[in-house]
């Protein structure tokens, strides 16, 4: 892994290291400057949100005394990949930015980064599950998952706790 990648993750200001992140994950680059609706993303463009979520997810690692090779990078990689598919799914209609099914595109993109995922010791199935279902977590938390059967299905997911934890980081990326 490149020094610049670690510097970006542990900087508490990863947007400053956008080029270093893109050097490791080139599929991030199209997200630079892609606008989002202010209602959902007051922080601005997709790349800014991704970086803010990386910063939030990295904070527990920064505070940890664990050596770099012993850290759990699952949530940092989830932050990196959770909205990577937004550039490819971006639509602007009637003054509204939408990114329909960006989660599926994001999971598709992360398939090309097996070396990064494996190299950081992250379980790919766990990362895929968080990226795939992160919007379900927001619907659940916000009370927009109104069907009881859907809520029960959600809380029985094996990665339910991971989704709640990641949703917290994702929300912090909107501040």
Task: Sum up the structure in keywords.
175 residues; two-stranded antiparallel ribbon; 2 strands; globular
CATH topology: Hypothetical protein af1432
Order of H and E elements? HHHHHEEHHHHH
Q: What composes the largest sheet?
A: 2 strands, antiparallel
| Residue runs with pLDDT of under 50 for 5 or more positions | none
Shape: globular
Describe the secondary structure blueprint for this structure.
Blueprint (H helix, E strand, L loop, with lengths): L2 H7 L8 H7 L21 H18 L10 H8 L4 H4 L1 E3 L2 E3 L3 H9 L3 H6 L4 H19 L5 H8 L4 H13 L3
Antiparallel strand pairs: 1-2
What features would you describe in this structure?
The longest helix is centred in the C-terminal third of the chain and has 19 residues, at 124-142. This protein has a two-stranded antiparallel sheet. It has helices at residues 3-9, 18-24, 46-63, 74-81, 86-89, 102-110, 114-119, 124-142, 148-155, 160-172; strands spanning 91-93, 96-98. It is globular and about 45 Å long. It has 175 residues and is mostly helical. Helix 3 packs antiparallel against helix 4 (74-81), helix 3 (46-63) packs across helix 10 and helix 4 crosses helix 8. It has a single domain (3-172), classed as Hypothetical protein af1432, CATH 1.10.3210. A hairpin with a 2-residue loop joins strand 1 and strand 2. The chain contains 10 helices and 2 strands; from the N terminus they run H-H-H-H-H-E-E-H-H-H-H-H.
């Amino acid at each position: 892994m490149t020094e610049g990648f670690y510097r970006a993750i542990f900087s508490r200001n990863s947007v400053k290291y956008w080029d270093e992140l893109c050097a490791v994950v080139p599929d991030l680059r199209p997200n630079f400057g892609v606008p989002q609706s202010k209602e959902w993303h007051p922080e601005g463009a997709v790349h800014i949100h991704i970086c803010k979520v990386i910063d939030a997810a990295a904070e527990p690692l920064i505070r940890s005394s664990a050596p770099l090779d012993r850290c759990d990078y699952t949530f940092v990689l989830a932050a990196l990949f959770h909205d990577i598919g937004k550039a490819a799914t971006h639509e602007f209609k009637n003054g509204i930015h939408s990114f329909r099914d960006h989660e599926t595109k994001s999971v598709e993109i992360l398939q090309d980064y097996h070396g990064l995922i494996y190299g950081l010791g992250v379980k790919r199935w766990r990362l895929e599950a968080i990226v795939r279902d992160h919007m379900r977590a927001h619907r659940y938390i916000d009370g927009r998952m109104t069907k009881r059967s859907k809520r029960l299905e959600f809380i029985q997911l094996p990665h339910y706790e991971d989704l709640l934890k990641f949703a917290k980081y994702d929300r912090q990326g909107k501040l």
